[in-house]
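Sequence dictates fold. Next comes a concrete instance:
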Amino acid sequence: MAKIKHHNFLNTVHEVFTDAKQAGVLHLYAGGSSFSGRTIEVEGRELYHFGTTGYLGLEQDPRLKKAAMDAIAKYGTQFPLSKSYISNPLYEELEASIGKMYGYPIIITKNSTLGHLGVIPSAVDDDDVIILDHQVHWSVQNAAKMLKTRSIPIELIRHNNLEMLEDKIKKYRHSIRHIWYMADGIYSMYGDYAPVKDLMKLSEKYPQLHFYFDDVHGMSWVGRNGTGYVLDQLGELPENVLLFGTLSKTFGASGAVLACSNAKMYDKIKTFGGPLTFSAQLEPASVAAAIASAGIHLSDEIYDLQGELRERIDYFNACLLDTELPLIDQNTSPVFYIGTGMPKTGYNFVNRLMQEGFYVNLGIFPAVPVKNTGVRITISRHNQKDEIKALVEAMAYHFPKALEETGTDAQRVFHAFKLEYKKEQTQKSFEGLTMKVVESIDQVDKEVWNSYMGGQGVYDWDGLKFLETVFQGNIQKEHNWTFQYVVISDDHDIPVLMTFMALGLWKDDMLADAKVSAAIEEERKLAPYKLSSMVLSMGCLFTEGDHLYWNAEHPLVDKATNFFLEFMEKQELALGAKMTVLRDFPKESLWNNELYGQGFLRIQMPNSCTVDLNGSESIETYVEQLSARNRRHFRTDIQPFLDLVDCRVSSNLSALQLAQVRTLFGEVQARNLGLNTFSFPEGLFERMNENPLWEFIVLCPKNGPNRIVGVMFCYNNGGQVYVPAFVGMDYDGLETFSTYRQLLYRTIDRAIALKIPKIDFGMTASFEKRKLGAVVHEKYAYLHTRDNFILELLGVMEGQ
């Protein structure tokens, strides 16, 4: 699997959000001259509000409003001084009230994001380690990642996976002072809980285990004095727990609060906590509103409010029981998530609900995996029972219509969320189209395949026959690939879509930063398959190019596209693949919008290079056609080295030569961690040596004719394209012989001699290839995963 690199990640998020914005479900503006909390105006329509995080409705309480207005009248709109110097006159009362609520020392912060940035670097020492639940809020992850600069190890575990957590604890228990596990109390998307009691049992077994809980979504609506879910589970706050709550959201005001029972730790954080020292303090209106809310929390009224909310939550759960909606986690929190699977289904469903008069939130990447898009519904005291019932009825009515309108079905949604689907699924019809899927190129007509898919890379009919012989029947599992050939034709047997796919074991860090791969490779010395996954890919790791024939002009092309994507999804599930990858698309692709809507993310691949040789009668005339700068490069960096070696082209190497080139290829692969893949089968080179379509361009020093310093492994695709698929080099002679540049030059020379009009120069090293006249093409892949864990894990590892 490929990691989405940081700039790629931001571009991807931008594209996903832009797609959702254009669908009218994101970056909206509320209208109206007032706001009650029960309804919200969107584009001139009054909608019932099921998207708030003010679960108790305190943001509309008259007491909080009056306190805020009085504070502005008395103290102004802000108190523009750092709190380290002096706090505004209301702060002391607020701290006393919040401290009384918790019964422990507290620290007020501007908001939870700045609070995490202030607390985490202060609490975590250089000889500690951080373990993150991979669904812990972004603000916690972001603050923790700052500690990479202090070389503090950061690990990631799958959501609520205590077995994985214990494995990480065992890894560090004898070398680290404190092990910090960071998690949410209530998770903001699915509304599920941290297993607090089980975690505390784990800390009894491992005393160095400490906890950092962000419980902002558990605040106020549960617990003694509304201090939240985590403290309600704990009963008392142990010294090994730092607990974050909020003064906004359900609390109704603004700001955040840290509770800490460890006096030494408290003093350390309070004295200097980055943003706690340098950020502006809460405005007087916010402080006053928070004091008023604290008064409610310290009275018995808070339990009445919690009871009223619980009644609504229970009623919503009861209504949902009578439906077949895919509720992702059934619990008693005010946060509910109805899965839609594909983003375009989510857009459709949200828009339908808004047309019916209900406002809900869309859950979308990166908050959830793209294929786990859904509708997040929050219940508050503002919601009345008849409105709750009406929302459930509207969802039950519109959910199947949204599925049908976006070309999907309930079974696909349930599978996307790993939920059991109990109804019998009717087979979907793609009228007018027939799909043929076979597992060997022998079952595909050679002439038909080559007429649509030939003339590219190593995947004409003969090339695929070669690959099947190499990547089947091997001992090691990474050397065995399952091939599938897909042809979708109309009723006249005319292909609309044609491609081939391969299921194989990929390294998860294939496109990660080379430093990350280097670190993982050290661990693979003991665990060879660490961070590797079965991937279903269009094309395979041996091929590069346009792996898809797609007749964009055919009247059934849209139906064929959906037919193929649904087939891929079913194959991923049936074959146990963790990721599906559609490869080698240009930047401007007609598939782009459809693939985003179907739940695929786009990432940039290494650039691809081609050389057009039409009109070049010799290598000399080709060089003369290069730009002046590139001709200088040839005269300076290539020509002086040509007489230092003998260049031979051979289609059949001796056993000794074959052993040498295998070693040289291994040297290149070991150093090319920017495109980190498993090795190829031992028999690959012997198969090449036996196959008349493969040949070897070999460089040997004139003073050592039996020593090979460089080799290019080349495939002749029917005389239409020459494919230097792989390179091998002796790095001790790399500069002496200008080996890589020579091999590129000699490859062009050989293709001209064979009168082949085009070279597919493959990926990587595009700078060097460009200097010899190659055209560089941006290439993109579309992928979807079952979850974001691997992507996030590699992101955490980068920079450590």
The chain has four domains: 32-55+302-416, 60-297, 433-605+782-797, 609-778. The domain at 32-55+302-416 is CATH 3.90.1150.10 (Aspartate Aminotransferase, domain 1). Residues 6 and 754 are 43 Å apart (CA to CA).
